[in-house]
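The freezer alarm interrupted the setup, so I double-checked each line after restarting. Inputs confirmed:
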Amino acid sequence: MIPRMTMKALLLATAVAMTGLAAQAETLRVAMSSDPLSLDPIATSDNGSIWTQLLIFDTLIRPDRTGEGLEPGLAESWTVSEDGLTLTFKLRDAKFSDGTPVTAEDVQFSIARAASEASGWGRFYRPITGFQIMNDHEIVMTLAEPFTPAFNNLALFAAAILPKAQVEAKGEAFFEAPVGSGPFVLKAWNRGSKIELEKNPHYWQEGKPHVDAAVLEIVTEPSARVIKLEAGEVDIALDPPLNQLEALDAKDGISVGQTIPYRADFVQLNTTKKPFDDERVRQALNLAVDKEALVQGVLYGAGKPAASAMPVMAYADPDLTPYAYDPARAKELLAEAGYAGGFEAQLVVDSGAATSRNAAIALQAMLQQVGVKLKVQMLEGGTQWETTKAGNYEMSVSYTTSDTIDPDQIIGFVGVNPERANAYHTEWRSDRLNELYAAERKALDGPERGEMFQEMVQILHDGAPYIFLYHPASAWAVKDGVKGFEVLPTSNFRLEEVSIEN
Amino acid sequence: MILAILKRLLMLVPVLIGITLLSFLLLQIMPGDPASRAMGTRASAEELQAMRELWGLDKPLWVQYLYFLRDCLTGSFGVSIFHKQPIITLVAERLPYTLAIVAYSTVIALVIALPFAILAAANRGRLADVAIRQVFVVLIAVPPFWLCYVLILGLALGMGWFPTGGVGEGLLENLHRLFLPSLVVGLSTAALIQQSLRAALIDTMQADYIDTARAKGLRRREVFLRHVLPNSLISTISIIGVRISWIIGGTVVVEKIFSAPGLGSLLIDAIVSRDLPVIRGLTVFFAIMVVLVNLITDICYALADPRVRLE
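Predicted 3D structure, all chains:
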């Protein structure tokens, strides 16, 4: 007799069978927002590339899980000389995924490559001017003059250690099938669709990765990532839409998490233009914005108000609080500056960034209360970037993220003028801050250097060349049974720590 | 006929030269510089300049244009700044999915549109006609992103009949996976075809030669299949031609929601990152596709209607 099965029962049976299979193979499936552009660490700066590279390659040292310190990577120990000019690294017995050992030669080759002309990160490594290979497992790097961030920069993905012989032999083609000493090996890359990774059998951290394989599925649409998780097609969904977090968490079999990465959102104020040349006006704008409301309304609670344009990271002053929401005081300051009747200004915003767009509209309403009328102009991201860079703007919604765990990179970018971007195109300038910046880069890492950062951030806070908005959280959602997943403050994630329990 | 096709192909040359020139110049006007896009917040002016030199963006415009022409002629269409791959390789990786959606959605559209167009034409002005028309008007008006999510929530997540997106290996799996995205694209094509085919059928049915055919004793069915339908298909062919040209590069929304790596999303991603060679190369590639599709459409006209001559 043939049992009559309903469609639903049949499907259920299939689903059960498929879950069973997945458990046996222990493949971790992750829905990720963007496809890597390239797996060459010195050529990229997009998240998709960085996250994938960090699963395949290793660095000498790496940020720890808290993001506040460094922990051993391929180097099991290191010393920095008193004058900061000599860095000595002892390598552990690690192997690349093809079984060849990681040697000091490879280290020298990789760092020199990261400092080369072809590198997008050259400035981070050029201060290292000399290499001395003591033996296969020991290398000394020397600097011509003190540059404290140099050490920290070695923890960046761009300083990933590559097998010299293979990169030299294969050139660009190496990165199509890269060999690294990281936890996973690239098995297949179906561009725009998925990246298949396998456990690296030679990985130096014993017992890791816990899973046998991992698949990074490229799903651009945030809602589609969540749907994939709900359908059981993936185990982890990165960056679900923030407004769905609560509902997701309430669902059976799914839990969400969030972390605040090194990111700060703000509105750039062009201080070469009136009325933004007046510090009182800039402070008034900061006082007129209800940041708590922005966090609730724009980020759906996933984030916290910002006190400055610096991400909250190493040496951050815990006592520095955001500008209070005080429209009355804002009006007073505006009146003092001669703008009792308010003024009109144009605010440019990236039309492709939903959060920034919503923030712009909220700002329009908030600033209206103190008589400031904003005209919001939506620009395509690249155009906005060029517009602010050329100084053809009054106000612009933007943000910054830190690539390293050392605050040097971002303070140089958002606070120092003249520098790369002249305080991120605000053209604001503080001589004291510039002085501290120069000193900090030569000072030995420690509490004294920390105080310099705190003072710089305080000056930035008071000078207010930006309207400081918030630090948005990075969220994720996982299926029950997925243990050990988290997004680190550096925005990447360690799949080698993740296990699937049923 | 073959001579006519060759002549048409020859006429492509000036068109394509025009397109290369236009796509090249328009990109020069577009604000945004790949170096500063790539290096983001960390680059100094010197570093940006070094990067531009590395990518050949510092060369005089006419030199860059000649390189671009050379790349088009050699068939690589240039090399992506960020992917570091020849553009033809990037296209080849994604073209199968795009072509699959083109073919699949067209079949779906015809399967849906033909019977309803015939039904509506046969019942002109009656309830069935009005009802069908309303439904198809809604289909034209519905935004594709909405339809995508409704189908995903209903058929994929709800009923579990389809995966929620992505592509797989092998023909059968991809037929299954690409069904929903093809359905979304196919439904709006179907709506367009249904409306125009219905009108064409009604028109043809009133033609004198149909009366003649009836008068010489052909049965309704034969009259319809041999005379009415073929003579009404011209408009359908042109709609399909136009739609195919559009689908090749224009289904970004559907591609993104269903995570199907098609050519549309490749173009959009290139625009966002200012990967100039990819934008230009793809523009020329799309132009070639459009011209070819138009040519094929014209050939189909000639096949469907002996009065049409390829000139």
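Quick read of the result. The longest helix of chain B spans residues 87-122.
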